[in-house]
Amino acid sequence: MVDSLRRAARSARLLTALAALAACTSDDVVAPGAALAEGTMTVDARTGWAYVRLADSARVVPTPSARESDAWDIAFFATNVTLNGGEAGPGGVTGACLCQNRATNPTTAQWLAMTAASERAEFDTVTRAPTTLAFQSDRLTPAITGWFTGSGTAAVAAPDSLIYVRLADSSGIAKLRVTSIDAATATSAGRVTIEYAIAANGAASFGANRTATLDGRTGPVAFDLETGQPTTIATAWDLRLDGFALLVNGGVSGPGRGGAARVRTTTFAAGTPANSSPNAFRIDAFSGVFGAQRYWNYNLANDFRVTPTFDVYFVRRGARTWKIQVIDYYSPTGEARWITFRYAPVAG
Predict the structure, then answer these.
(1) Cα separations (Å) of 122 from 21, 126, 327, 342?
(2) Residue 11: half-sphere exposure toward Cβ, Cα within 13 Å
(3) pLDDT at 41
(4) At 279, is the pLDDT very low, low, confident or very high (cuts 50, 70, 90)?
(5) Whole-number Å distance between alpha carbons of 232 and 221
(6) pLDDT tens-digit series, residues 78-88
(7) How far apart are CA 66 and CA 307, in angstroms?
(8) How far apart (Å, rounded) are the C-alpha atoms in residues 108 and 302?
(9) Phi, psi angles (nearest 5°) of residue 279
C-alpha cells in the first residue's frame, strides 16, 4: 500500500515539476568559464556553521566573519540554512524553492516512504530554474515566534503560546510565555511582561514561576533569566527584546548556546522538561527561502527524528545558479546534524 501511495505521489510531483519547467521561457545560461562543481557533499553541522562555496565544492572559514566575507555561498547548522546575501552577508546570494513535494501535500506515510534513491529522479529532471519563481535574500529569523499577534500599536500578547528557552550557558531550560504588551509603537513592543520557570539539566520539573518585565521603550534590553535581572554582560543574557524581536543568546544573536522551541500542544501550566525535545530547539539565524520552506519534517513517526522533504531548491549568485536537494540529516552511524545534499549547476 505504501509503495503504491509513493508511486502515485511521485508521479504527481513529477508532473508538477515538469509543468513548472515547461512554463520557463528564459534563455539564461550559466556564465562562461570553468565548469561549476556538482556532486554530493556531507558537512558536519553539529556544533557550528559549516560554510560551503559551491563553485569549487570547498568548505571555507569566513574571514573576518560570515557577515563580512563573500567567500561562501551556503551554510548549514543543525536544521538551519543560510545564504550569503541580504542581512546575512555581502555575497548577493539568493534562493528559491521548486517545492515539488510540499506542493502535493503528501500524507505522513508518503513522506516517510521517500528516500534519497526514490527522489533522485526529481532532482535529475530539473535543468533550469523556472522564471516564475521568486528568489529571495536572507534576513534575521528569531527562534522565538508566535508570542504576540497584530502589529505596531495593535500588538497584543499571546499568553497561550508556550516557549522553551535553552539557557545561554546550556545549564538548563526555561518555559516561558508572554503575558502582556504595554506601550507598543510602530517599531517596538514597548514593555513586555513574561512569566517563566527554570529547570536545571536532568530535572524532572520546573522551579517556581517568576515574572519579569522587559522594557524596550528606549532600545534593546538583555535579560538574565537565572538572576531575573537585565544585564550588559554578553555571555550572561538569555533573552533580549529588540523592537518586536525576542532573541536568544545563540546563533547569530549572541555568543552563548541558547535556543528556543515553540510548543503548540501543551499549555504553560502543563509544560514539563520531559515534553521539551532537544531536537526541536532552534537558534536565531539568517534565513530566507530555507526558513520559509524548510527542507525537513520533524517527528513524523513519533520518533523525534528529522526527515528531509527532498524538495529541490535553487541558489543563485550573479549569473550562476545551482539546484540543491538535501537528502540526509544523519551520519551512517545515526548521529544527527550531518547534512548531506546534492547540488549541480542549472540554467537561469
Answers:
(1) 12, 7, 12, 12
(2) 5
(3) 96
(4) low
(5) 8
(6) 899 999 999 99
(7) 28
(8) 11
(9) -70, -20
Query: Alpha-carbon distance 150 to 158, whole Å?
Result: 10
Report pTM: 0.71
Set of cell numbers at residue 174: 526555561
Cα–Cα distance between 292 and 323 in angstroms, integer?
17
- Alpha-carbon distance of 147 to 165, in angstroms, equals 13
Q: Which residue has cell 559549516?
A: 50
Cell of 208: 517556581
Q: Does 90 sit behind a cis peptide bond, omega within 30 degrees of 0 on the bond before it?
A: no
pLDDT tens digits for range 40-74: 999 999 988 999 999 999 999 999 989 899 999 99
